[in-house]
């Protein structure tokens, strides 16, 4: 149980609460933060593109903190449907910012490490590197950076922008890379994986643990929260197979040019949690350690 700072009960309002981050936040609040009530709103309960509806809900629940998770995160879909993506990822954030300003509460805005352009093999440090809109790769990433900029435009004082790595986790609800690979190796014995593009695997359980501790600290600002280390998709897939204890699966490295995608991707996305380290709050693990924990302990994969 996390120690409570004071006797005051708090209310968190979580938008888009039915995704894997929202589910993990709810689990950890229930398990460790007994003094925090949470209001969990899916799209059917609150349309973030409707300002009056957003303001009505905020005034109804009077949250101490708003965690704004509602977003369209499929990068290929966003590339093909920019107007609809903008409605939710930009105009929706604008409505959230206006309502947060109106009721004077704290805003938590999960962004993405994709706001960094990932060129030249650079390691991105949140203490020194400032993403620029004209250099961001892909429409989804641009909408997330625009969301960050809206928080500053509306002069919200109490905020956390969290730039997240390539997520895994969610158990049966995991539709991201780890979940896809675990399904594939039940059906295939040969996989082709990109080996010239680096990402930063980040366990949702570690992310949420670190994020909630950061919120409790009241050290407001913009932070990277990513798993330590990076990997190509080929290296990532090899570790998934190893930790799932699957044998006789062949993984073939390929160049990204051989793989057709609708949205452009950065070549090398590697960041460090510089600001967290400065305040002694970097609780993230090496991605390999977290991945093994997830597959063998959460998913309970055994030997063939």
Low-pLDDT runs of 5+ residues are: none
How much helical structure, as a percent, in the residues?
25-40%
**What does the average pLDDT come to?**
93
Spatial strand arrangement across the major sheet: 2-1-3-4-6-11
What is the structural class?
alpha/beta
CATH superfamily of one domain: NAD(P)-binding Rossmann-like Domain
CATH topology of one domain: the name is Rossmann fold
* Number of extended strands: 14
The string of secondary-structure elements, in order, is: EHEHEHHEEHEEHEEEHEEHEEHH
Fold and architecture overview:
This protein has ten helices and 14 strands. By secondary structure, it is α/β, with parallel strands linked by helices. It has a domain at 10-169 and 201-227 and 271-285: Rossmann fold (3-Layer(aba) Sandwich), CATH 3.40.50. The strands form five sheets. It has a six-stranded parallel beta sheet with strand order 2-1-3-4-6-11, with helices on both faces. A two-stranded parallel sheet has the order 5-14. Helix 1 links the parallel strand 1 (10-15) and strand 2. The chain starts with 9 loop residues before the first strand and ends in a 6-residue tail after the last helix.
Please sum up the structure shown.
The chain is α/β, with parallel strands linked by helices. The chain contains ten helices and 14 strands.
Question: What features would you highlight for this structure?
Answer:
alpha/beta, about 300 residues, 6-stranded parallel β-sheet, Rossmann fold, 14 strands, two-stranded parallel ribbon, single chain, 10 helices, about 20% strand
């Amino acid at each position: 149980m996390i120690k409570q700072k004071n006797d005051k009960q708090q209310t968190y309002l979580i938008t888009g609460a039915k995704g894997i981050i929202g589910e993990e936040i709810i689990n950890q609040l229930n398990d460790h933060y007994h003094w925090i009530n949470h209001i969990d709103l899916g799209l059917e309960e609150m349309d973030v593109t409707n300002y009056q509806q957003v303001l009505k809900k905020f005034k109804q629940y009077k949250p101490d903190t708003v965690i704004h998770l509602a977003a369209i995160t499929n990068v290929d879909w966003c590339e093909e449907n920019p107007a609809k993506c903008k409605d939710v990822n930009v105009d929706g954030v604008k409505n959230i910012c206006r309502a947060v300003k109106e009721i004077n509460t704290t805003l938590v805005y999960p962004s993405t490490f994709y706001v960094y352009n990932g060129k030249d093999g650079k390691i991105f440090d949140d203490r020194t590197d400032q993403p620029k809109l004209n250099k961001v790769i892909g429409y989804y990433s641009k909408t997330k950076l625009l969301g960050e900029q809206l928080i500053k435009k509306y002069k919200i004082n109490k905020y956390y922008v969290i730039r997240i790595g390539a997520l895994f986790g969610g158990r049966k609800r995991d539709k991201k890379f780890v979940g896809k690979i675990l399904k594939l190796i039940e059906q295939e014995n040969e996989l082709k994986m990109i080996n010239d593009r680096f990402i930063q695997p980040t366990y949702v359980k570690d992310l949420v643990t670190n994020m909630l501790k950061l919120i409790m600290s009241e050290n407001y600002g913009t932070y990277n929260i990513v798993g330590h280390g990076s990997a190509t998709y080929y290296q990532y897939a090899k570790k998934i197979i190893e930790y799932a204890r699957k044998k006789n699966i062949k993984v073939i490295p390929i160049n990204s040019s051989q793989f057709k995608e609708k949205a452009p991707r950065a070549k090398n996305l590697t960041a460090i949690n510089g600001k967290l380290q400065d305040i002694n709050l970097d609780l993230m693990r090496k991605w390999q350690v977290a991945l093994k924990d997830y597959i063998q302990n959460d998913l309970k994969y055994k030997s063939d």
